[in-house]
């Protein structure tokens, strides 16, 4: 686990008109972390409130930000300008991919219905193989392999209908 900040007192900033980023925390010493929106995720605590899989917002040449939504603010009873204690760690690529992300990918590829028709064991085996791989590149290749297999099942069903 790679901590990017541990028990650090930081300001909960308020900047009106920034949408989801109206309330945010800037994480010091993070401008060196390379990645784009959606690929950099952190988990940890803010004032002992557990957060999981929050995206880091990247601004070129600046430290990363995390958005602090209303649920978090209510739970920690803080508002813009208040100080919070933050502990965050960067999730590794094997921690980043989730079953939901796999299912979303299958949906986008048009093979989710074929996946849902598999037995529970087949579904667990498929998602388990993807999530157990150690690199994002290998995970993507495995997902593409399964998408290909599932699309062939879809094609067979369409042929039977015709």
Report what the structure shows.
The strands form 2 sheets. This protein has a 4-stranded antiparallel β-sheet with strand order 1-7-4-5, covered by helices on one side. Strands 2-3-6 form a 3-stranded antiparallel β-sheet, with no helix packed on it. It folds into 2 domains: 2-91, Elongation Factor Tu (Ef-tu), domain 3; 95-161. 40% of the residues lie in helices and 25% in strands. The chain is α+β, with helices and mostly antiparallel strands. The protein is elongated, with a radius of gyration of 20 Å. The model is unreliable at 158-162 (pLDDT under 50).
Features:
alpha+beta; Elongation Factor Tu (Ef-tu), domain 3; 4-stranded antiparallel sheet; 3-stranded antiparallel sheet; elongated; disordered C terminus
Number of DSSP E strands: 7
As for the number of domains, it is: 2
Compute the CA-based radius of gyration: 20 Å
Apparent shape: elongated
Tally of separate helices: 6
Strand content: 15-25%
Structural class: alpha+beta
CATH superfamily grouping of the largest domain = AF2212/PG0164-like
The CATH class of the largest domain, by name, is Mainly Beta
- N-to-C terminal Cα separation, in Å? 53 Å
Mean pLDDT: 84
Query: Which residues sit in consecutive blocks of at least 5 with pLDDT less than 50?
Result: 158-162
Per CATH, the architecture of the largest domain is: Beta Barrel
Indicate the percent of residues in helices.
Answer: 40-55%
Query: What kind of sheet is the major sheet?
Result: 4 strands, antiparallel
Q: What's the CATH topology name of the largest domain?
A: Elongation Factor Tu (Ef-tu), domain 3
Order of helices and strands: EEEEEEHEHHHHH
Strand order of the largest sheet: 1-7-4-5
């Amino acid at each position: 686990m790679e901590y990017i900040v541990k028990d650090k007192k930081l300001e909960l900033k308020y900047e009106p008109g920034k949408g989801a980023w109206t309330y945010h925390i800037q994480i010091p010493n993070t401008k060196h972390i390379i990645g784009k929106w959606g690929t950099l995720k952190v988990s940890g605590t803010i004032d002992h409130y557990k957060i999981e899989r929050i995206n880091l917002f990247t601004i070129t040449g600046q430290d990363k930000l995390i958005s602090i939504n209303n649920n978090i603010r209510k739970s920690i009873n803080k508002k813009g300008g208040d100080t919070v204690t933050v502990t965050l760690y960067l999730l590794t690529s094997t921690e980043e991919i989730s079953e939901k992300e796999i299912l979303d990918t299958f949906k986008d590829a048009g093979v989710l219905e074929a996946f849902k028709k598999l037995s529970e064991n087949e579904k667990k085996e498929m998602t388990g193989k993807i999530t157990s791989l150690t690199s994002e590149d290998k995970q993507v290749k495995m997902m593409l392999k399964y998408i290909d297999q599932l699309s062939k099942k879809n094609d067979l069903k369409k042929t039977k209908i015709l």
